[in-house]
Structures are given as structure tokens and as C-alpha cells.
């Protein structure tokens, strides 16, 4: 019997809950589950295909090394020299070729098993130098496997039910292809609190730990894991004692979740009677059950772009109309805010024309992309109008940086309305147009913008990113992503003031809205509508019901006078933490 060593990993818990179960490793998937036998006549061709991939990988890493040497420094570039050397390592290459010939299996499968073997031997030495070498080895092998996979067209991922997904990182297009019933949690090497793994996990009420650095190097498909999304911990090969302890933790967590469910039908009202509206953010119509279960008062943000991801053709108008109608019908008279396509940045859709960009977050994304390709905008506006026939349609434009984009969008809306009318299609009773405030320029011009639109919605994930110039998905600067930075608070305060002056509602729909402490700070700053992942509504409501508005306003006013994010955070914890 093999006794397996228990490994402990600490990361960032971005979605609470405890689950135990088998791992499904995304990186190793192609190598391990797509092994296939070769006919004798195919073997030499496979060896050639492998050698070709090795050669292409060598060219890639040499080129990367050169670029890094130019742009960063020689020390960083040396990593790629080491990778190039690994790609000529006879132990690695010859063993793979021998394996392909003897086992008559495809190159990816053999190469990954050889990599695993060598990687484990290196890691077992227990010396940091060798463990680093094993990281390089995995890195370089993934590159080769990627090249091999491109040649043979890998389609789709079949995840066994009950799996904990383990991956380097999960982009929105990958998460879009999972089914809720297959997975119980997410574990990733990279990612931060507002990465899409985090957003998705919260939306699905599944625990997730991100920022674990090298966990994919240790975990194999089927390995037993404990995932504690509340504490940010992952345990590989746990002992029976640990399993028993965490099973109990899982029961307790679920009990607490049920208590939250009891709050479902109670209003989000402060002790002194101020009513706050709590709505849900959704990515898919599949989340509607959860929305209802948490007692959301509407959909404050429907990220419609997810409907365009994880597919190989653009959705038709009819397909879209059906999806949008499902959501509208399920929500009855409650408002549903449809955000128009927000692709670009880290949200990639294979069906939309998007060029590679050096700074995708600052590039042709969201409304900019739609205005550059108005056919895309119309492809979405038409089914939205059709789905909301006879009802109110709330449209939200992402990434607005000034007034021109609002005017241009209105013009397209007008054209679409006329076109539909000439086709005899029934139109919405009313179209309310809102904008996301997520770029500092829009926040600074909020008074002018508020006069032009029907509502405002502050996307704090991007507002923090753009105000502080901190890439929201870059772990290296994760510690600089401070929602409590005074500059951010002042911008939010400015937007609320502008919205109030113009009589236009202001919602916060970024991740800040679903964090208990931050939500109370936002309320103190004047926000009366919050939209968040459905599973966060309960804890936020419980906190709101235990505080007085007077106290929150006083605290928020005091925090606006502080000068650093750390000072704000400390004061927030000391003052708001005491209230509930
Ligand atoms: C935001 O930026 O805060 C937001 C809600 O939009 P997304 O996270 O989808 O970019
Ligand atoms: Mg955004």
C-alpha cells in the first residue's frame, strides 16, 4: 500500500464553504485522459510530431527569453534559458521517444507521464533548488503539450461529477463550459478576489481558493482533496482525522447557510428604518433558483457576455431572446438589469472579432468594442427589446468613459427601435438606460452623466483597477488592490452625490457590495442599492438589520477624512466591526 504524504496549501479563500472530494486537474486533462493507442505504422510519425513540438517550444522560449531580456532584465530572462536547456534534456526527450515507441501511445500522454515522474523525483529531494527545477519542468512541459494539442484539436472537457476543479487559472471561457452539477469547488494557482474564478464560484455558491501558486504541480486527477474556501486552505491526501474534522466543518457551514435562508423573506432595513435594496448579479439563467432562494429583489447585474462565451458561433437573436425572456419571466415584476456585452480584458469570446492587444484592459473592450462593431450591439439590442416586449427594459452600458459613448449607444437604440417597429415587432413599454461607473473619468463626470441616463451602477472591481492602476487579475499586485483607498471612496461618494442631485438611482454591483464590512461602508456613503452574488445577500442583509444608519453615516464621514487605505481599513474594522 502506498502511504501518501499530506500536503497543505494556503491561498486566498474567495468563496466560502467546505468540500471534500476528488480533484479534476485542468492542465493534465489532455495528457491523461486523452491517451490513445497508435498503429505500428503511426509510431514514427508520432515521434516526429513530438520532436517538432519540442523544436517549436524551444523557438518560443528562446524568443521569450530575448523579449524578457530586452524588456525586463537578464536575470528574469535566464529562466527561459533554463527552459531551453530542459527542452534538449536527453533524459526527458529520449525517455518520451522510447515510451512512444514501446507503449505505442500518443506523445502528450507519454510526455506528461515522463514529466510527472521526473518532477516527482525532483520534488521528493526536498531541496528548494530541485523543487524550483520541477516547476520549470512542468512549465516547459505544459508549453509542449499545448503545442501538441493545437495540432490535434482538443474539444471540450468531460468533468466527472463531484469534482473539485484544480487549474492554473480559470478564465471566463473555461468556467463557462462547466456544469454546476459536475463540480463542487475551485482551486487555482493564480487569481485574486475579483478574478472570474472568484466571481463564478460565488455565483454558483461553491467554495474556491485561488492564488495557490503551484498546486497544479502536486495534484493529480482523482487525488482526494479538502477545500476550505472560508479559510483559504487546501489539503491534499488528508488523514482520516482531518477528513472527519472537515466533514463536521462542512455540516456547520451548511447549517449557517440555512440560518441565512431564514432571512430570505425579511427586508434589508436598518434598525432606524432605512430600507436598502439588495439585488443579485448573475452570469447565467441557471442561477435563477439561487436568486430566488436568497430573496434578491431583482437582478442588479446580468453579465450577458457569458452567453457569448464557451461557444464556437455567435448566439442567434432567437437563442438570446429565449435566454433573456427566461430571466425576465422568472423575475416577474422585479427589475432585471441587462448589461450589454462586456468582453475584452480577461473575458475572451472566440466568436467575437478581437485582436491581440498589449494592454487588453485598456483596449478595445466592452462598449468600445460594440461601438466599433455596431452589428454586435444590434445583435444584442434586438433580442433584448423583443424579450422585454410590453415590459420595462433596463439596459446597462459597461466601461463608459464619457458622454459620447452614451449618445452613440442611444443612437443605435433608436435605430433598432425603428427597425423593430417597421417589422411590426412589439416593443418594451419603456427602455431605461444606465451606465457602469468603472472608469475614473466617468466618476469625475458623474453629474453630467447622471443627467443623460436613467440610472448609474458603480463597478468597483474595475473602478479600483483603473483608479489605482492595479491589474485586477495580477497576483503580484494583488496587495495593492485596495477598495478602501481614499481615492476610491471619494469617487464613490462623488457618484452617489451626483446621482442624488439628479434624482437617479445609484447601485454598487462590484465585489465590494457583497463584502459585509464594505457594504456597510457603502451604505454609510449614501448607497441604497447593492447588487452581489446571490449567496452573499444573506450575510449582508443580516448585518444591515443590526445597524443604525445614523452610525454608518457618521463612520463613513470620518473615514472620508483619512489619507491611506490602511488607515481606512483599520478604522473600518474597529468602528463598523463593532456594530454587528
Ligand atoms: C465591476 O467592474 O465591478 C463589475 C461589476 O463588472 P465586471 O466584474 O464584470 O467587470
Ligand atoms: Mg467591470
Structural account:
It is built from 23 helices and 16 strands. By secondary structure, the protein is of the alpha/beta class. It folds into four domains: 7-23 and 155-244, Phosphohistidine domain (Glucose Oxidase, domain 1); 40-148, Enzyme I, Chain A, domain 2 (Orthogonal Bundle), CATH 1.10.274.10; 259-271 and 463-580, Phosphoenolpyruvate-binding domains (TIM Barrel); 277-437, TIM Barrel (Alpha-Beta Barrel). The strands form two sheets. It has an eight-stranded mixed sheet with strand order 1-8-7-3-4-5-6-2. It is globular, with a radius of gyration of 26 Å. It binds phosphoenolpyruvate and magnesium ion.
Strand order within the widest sheet?
Answer: 1-8-7-3-4-5-6-2
Number of strands: 16
User: Which ligands appear in the coordinates?
Assistant: phosphoenolpyruvate, magnesium ion
Which class best fits the helix and strand makeup? alpha/beta
CATH superfamily heading of the largest domain:
Phosphoenolpyruvate-binding domains
Which percent band covers the strand fraction?
5-15%
Record keyword descriptors for this entry.
single chain, 580 residues, alpha/beta, Glucose Oxidase, domain 1, Enzyme I, Chain A, domain 2, TIM Barrel, 4 domains, 8-stranded mixed beta sheet, 8-stranded parallel β-barrel, 23 helices, 16 strands, 14% strand, globular, binds phosphoenolpyruvate, binds magnesium ion
Topology diagram in text:
Blueprint: E1 7-10, E2 12-15, E3 18-25, H1 26-33, H2 43-71, H3 74-86, H4 90-103, H5 107-124, H6 128-152, E4 163-167, H7 172-175, E5 183-188, H8 196-203, E6 208-210, H9 215-218, E7 224-228, E8 233-236, H10 240-262, E9 277-282, H11 288-293, E10 299-303, H12 317-331, E11 336-339, H13 366-372, H14 374-387, E12 392-397, H15 403-422, E13 430-437, H16 440-444, H17 446-452, E14 455-458, H18 460-468, H19 486-502, E15 506-508, H20 516-524, E16 529-532, H21 537-544, H22 549-559, H23 565-575
Parallel strand pairs: 3-4, 4-5, 5-6, 9-10, 9-16, 10-11, 11-12, 12-13, 13-14, 14-15, 15-16
Antiparallel strand pairs: 1-8, 2-6, 3-7, 7-8
Helix pairs in contact: 1-5, 2-3, 2-4, 2-6, 3-6, 4-5, 5-6, 12-14, 13-14, 14-15, 17-19, 20-22
